[in-house]
Automatic annotation (TrEMBL):
Keywords: Membrane, Transmembrane, Transmembrane helix. It holds the Pfam family WHD_AAA_fung. Residues 80-222 form the Orc1-like AAA ATPase domain. This is Orc1-like AAA ATPase domain-containing protein. SUPFAM superfamilies: P-loop containing nucleoside triphosphate hydrolases. The keyword Protease does not apply. It comes from Echria macrotheca. InterPro entries: AAA_16, HTH_AAA, P-loop_NTPase. The chain crosses the membrane at residues 6-26.
Length: 483
């Protein structure tokens, strides 16, 4: 019996020790391979480059790739940031949609073949943001961990924000190892930050990313780059920033815009345009790269310019046109917002007429603008301007200047204000809004006895009281009193 018991105990002991040793080795090996995969994610080559190359229809490592690129004045700064040469700071790229922010980042990544770079697109849903971050870092969030097959609570049973924190913890370990080997920080780019919702979850996510950015910038571990179209992201980051650098991306100046249009036209049609044609296109749509690219692809460039202006005007009118003095009181809230937008657009047109110059022969268009606090004063509301910025109707620059979102949008403002009777129509709308608000603040009391022809006799009595006597005429003409 003792021999059988000893044999059984030895067998169980060997199996238990073997199982424990195997689990320990698997756990350590899993952690090692997690860091190994994340390290490989920062090796040269990036799927983002392949996708961008497909859009350009030329391999990203081709010597001809640079010929399809339109350089911007800020490209040299972006190249240094992406190459890890700018240390001690994290960066916010702020500019209107279509100015070339993402394209500059992709071009800078192409020049170093994605070495030490990870890039992801932001999203309003934290779960989708988590998945995209995991894809960029090649991190599975322990979803492939074998412990999940057991009944015990797995490490994935948590919120998306905690998962993002875990991924950034792993990235920090990778950055520490890589700095010893390479001597420069990793670069993590979060594109389209404006897609994150401006709510509590979105603010928590931005705060989490900014805390890491501040910490990593101080230690020269990871340089984080945030890319946004909307001003509210800058306001949110500004509250806690100590090491943030802001790079404002605006429309191209006239000389570079004309050069870009010429290169685009050569790319698509192998056609050399006359200087006066190039200047005419610039006068119509300005230096927005997305507009210039769209015009260059068209056979009739002038008609496409007019289409862009009509499209911008239609977008503005569909979002915030006013309904005049006959509007129903049910649309009161929407019309407050619409009237404020139209008032601001009218003020920009009026300021443009007061400016000494709205067009410089060298730099091109000079759009009228107001400081943000003045724009709020003109609109008589402080909460509407940022919503209008999100809709790309107006633009708030990094210097807190409010202007039209583009040159075609400013042209649309001019056409709208120039309509016959526009200012009277706007004033009628404002008066109607004021009347509806007045009705909402007024309480009407109806004395039914007076409606029937009676009268009230009111007199003050001793002690500070008031006596009201009703005088009502009966059929015989006699008065009937009651108090």
């Amino acid at each position: 019996m003792l021999e059988a018991a000893a044999t059984s105990f030895a067998s169980i002991f060997v199996v238990g020790v073997g199982f424990a040793l195997t689990a320990y080795v698997y756990h350590k090996g899993y952690k090692y391979f997690v860091l190994k995969k994340m390290t490989n994610a920062f090796e040269p080559g990036d799927p983002v480059l392949e996708l961008a190359a497909m859009g350009r229809k030329v391999p990203h490592d081709s010597p001809d790739a640079a010929a399809y690129w339109i350089p911007r004045p800020e490209q040299e700064i972006v190249d240094r940031i992406v190459a890890g040469e700018e240390t001690g700071h994290y960066h916010l790229f702020l500019g209107d949609k279509g100015t070339g922010k993402s394209s500059m980042l992709l071009e800078a990544i192409r020049k170093i073949d994605g070495d030490g770079i990870a890039m992801l697109e932001a999203h309003a849903d934290l779960e989708i943001f988590r998945i995209r971050l995991g894809k960029a870092l090649d991190y599975e969030f322990h979803e492939d961990y074998i412990g999940g097959y057991f009944s015990e609570r797995g490490p994935r049973d948590t919120t998306a924000l905690l998962d993002i924190e875990r991924a950034l913890n792993k990235l920090e370990k990778v950055a520490l190892l890589r700095r010893k080997q390479v001597g420069r920080p990793l670069v993590l780019i979060v594109n389209q930050m404006h897609l994150i919702r401006d709510d509590e979850d979105g603010k928590d996510l931005i705060e989490l990313l900014q805390q890491r950015a501040e910490q990593w910038a101080a230690a020269n571990l990871v340089t984080m780059v945030f890319n946004s179209d909307d001003y509210w992201v800058y306001e949110r980051l500004k509250q806690l920033s100590t090491r943030m650098e802001v790079l404002s991306i605006v429309d191209l100046p006239k000389t570079q815009a004309i050069m870009a249009l010429r290169n685009y036209r050569l790319k698509y049609f192998q056609e050399h345009l006359a200087p006066e044609v190039l200047e005419d296109v610039y006068d119509r749509v300005g230096g927005r790269l997305s507009f210039l690219n769209r015009v260059a692809k068209s056979r009739d460039m002038v008609e496409t310019c007019n289409d862009i202006i009509r499209s911008e005007k239609t977008w503005f009118l569909n979002q915030c046109w006013i309904l005049g003095g006959e509007m129903d009181d049910d649309v009161m809230d929407q019309q407050k917002w619409a009237a404020a937008a139209v008032v601001l657009a009218t003020a920009l047109v009026d300021k443009e007429s007061e400016m000494d110059s709205t067009y410089d022969p060298e730099t091109g268009h000079v759009l009228p603008s107001f400081p943000l606090h003045i724009a709020q004063q003109i609109m008589t509301r402080a909460d509407f301007v940022r919503a209008l910025d999100r809709l790309n109707l107006f633009s708030i620059t990094s210097r807190a200047q409010v202007r039209a979102s583009s040159v075609p949008m400013q042209r649309a403002f001019r056409e709208m204000v120039a309509q016959d009777g526009f200012r009277e129509y706007l004033q009628a709308t404002i008066d109607r809004i004021a009347a509806i608000e007045s009705l909402g603040r007024t309480r009407e009391l109806v004395a039914k006895d007076l409606v029937l022809g009676a009268t009230y006799e009111i007199r003050q009595i001793k002690g500070g009281g008031v006596e009201v006597t009703l005088k009502q005429k009966e059929e015989g003409g006699e008065e009937k009193k009651g108090s």
